[in-house]
Each structure stands twice: as structure tokens, then as C-alpha cells.
Amino acid sequence: MLRAGFAGLALAFVATARAEDACARPPALDPAGREGAAQGRVQAVNERLELTLDDGRRLKIAGLDPPRPTPDNPDLDVRSGERLAAWLAGKDIVFRLTAPRPDRWGRYSVEAFAPAQAAAPSAVPVAQAALDAGLARFEPGAAARPCRTFLLAAETAARAGALGLWADPYYAIIAAGDHESFAEKAATSVIVEGRVTGVAKDGFRTTLLFGDRRGFDFSVTILQRNVKIFTAAGVDVEKFQGQTIRVRGLLDMRFGPQIEVSNPDEIEMLPQGQDAAAPKTAPQR
């Protein structure tokens, strides 16, 4: 079990199935492999939440960003892997390939489905169950895009309940004005929330500004070649001005706190007025 019990979790995904079968319902097995649907038995789960099947194949669950050790929880990654293994090890899973070939580390990116409990005939999505239990954060990308809404909803529920990694203050969402937290988390994957106060453009990039002090206040960078990806997705980056957004990515502190994003999946639009916890007082310059 990841949360209180998979029987309840399975029922929760019935509604999801009605809304989007492809995300909540396992694919039909295709012996010819034309649709990328297959089956295998899980032999092991590591601290990166990767699955090793008994035939040696390694699977990366699309949409899962595994936790890293933190100052208060140096074995957080190991314990998350153990919890997922307690559910999946020795069980048969059904999975759908999200890419035809393995990545450079030999892993197949997949959407995986596993029985909610030993006697349950139905299977639930592994990614949503893991996010719902706080075993990982959502990882944006092409592989997870079709189920992004449901994966984010599962992450939100776990965060609201302070489950798993969300019980660790290190993983709290950072308010855009919280300079102290930025200093502590340089070169790590973070989630930042705040209101875009301005949009600056030059020949190389578009920058979303979260304050008036360039190089000191938080910003989000979108390289010009990636602006085209936003445009193709129907997103006008200039319309982010005045909006409250949540952005996730690697925190770069070399030229002030900033995150570079490459596609719209890395940004969430939030209701006006919603923001992260009040930031700590920033030092005066």
C-alpha cells in the first residue's frame, strides 16, 4: 500500500477513467507490440523509482521526479523506493511505451499499471498512485504530457496532505520573493510560485520577471528557440505578465535566482491571488 489502501485508490481512479481512459486504464496487450503495450513481472525498485523486470528490462515511470536526500531526511530516496517496492515487487504489471527505444541509460520510458491489491482484478496507474502518496514530484515532459492534468492533481492532493516528501520542509514550494530559500537550494530541482511583474525580450531570450531588481529577484528564462514551442502550443509568453504562475526546474544562481524552461509543461497557471507562503523578508541592498 502507498496511501491508506489501494482499494480506495482504485475507486478514486474510476472517475479519472471516465474522463480519460488512456491515462487511467491499462492498455490492451498487443502480442505484436504494435501499440507498445506489454506485460512483465517487477523484480526490483531502486531509489530512483525505476523498475527492473525479471527479464532484465529497466523501466522509468513517465511523470515521476524521484526525491533526493535532504538535510533532515538523508535516506528519503531509499525509503521512497522501498515503499514503491513493497507494492510492486513480485507483481505483474502492464505498461505502455512512451518512446520506441530506451534512453542512453538503457531505460524504457513507460506508463505503467499495477493491481491495487493482491486480489484486485483491476489495475491503477503507478505514476498517479506514487504521486498521490508523495513518493515523487511530477516531472514534466513529452512522455507525461497526455496525463499531465491527472498527475498534477495527484501531486496536489499529496502536498495538501503533507504526505511523503511533502512532509519535509526542504520540498516546500518556494515563494518568488523568498531569497533565503533560493540560496539554500542552488543547482537543485525546485518549484517556485509567484506573480510575473514584467516580461523582457531580446534577440536571444524572453525573461519573465518576478521583481524590479534584475540579477537579484527571481526570473524565468525562455530561450528564443523554445519560445517557438510555446507559440506552437498556443501559449503567448507575453501574456504571462500579471499572472500568478508555478514553475519547476533546475535553480541557477549564477546570475541571480532563475529557472530556464523549455516548454509550457513546466509552467502552471494559478488562480489570481493564489501565491506560495509569504516570503521571508529580503535583505535590503
TrEMBL record:
Keyword match Signal: yes
Protein name according to UniProt: Nuclease (SNase domain protein)
Signal peptide range in chain numbering: 1-19
Species for this entry: Methylocella tundrae
Gene3D superfamilies: 2.40.50.90
Keywords: Signal
